[in-house]
Specification:
By secondary structure, the protein is mainly alpha-helical. It is 42% helix and 7% strand. It has five helices and two strands, in the order αββαααα. It has helices at 2-7, 44-47, 60-70, 76-93, 104-112; strands at 12-15, 18-21. It has a two-stranded antiparallel ribbon. A hairpin with a 2-residue loop joins strand 1 (12-15) and strand 2.
Amino acid sequence: TIQQGLLRRQKNIELLGKQISLHPGVGVFVTMNPGYAGRSNLPDNLKSLFRSVAMVVPDRKLIAQVMLFSQGIVSAEVLSGKVVDLFSKCEKRMSNQKHYDFGLRALKTLLVSA
């Protein structure tokens, strides 16, 4: 419905029984992480409506450093490296169990509470 409205240059569309104004610059984005536990793949009919974009692994040390500096921690440069190293060592050495989470969300949770 949104895509058809954009193609027809409509000012309003009907979505779920309601009239909604449609901005010509609107975009719809879907973030998928199919390898993540509990996630499912997007059906092919919906997948064909979106363009794939490759993602890169985030720089955890830089993210940790910025988060620590933003909280006023002056030794953030050294501390961020140590925390990220600890997380990566735990991830490599501990057994693969669901209750162990050493991903970016867990790292951010730890840094916010620092």
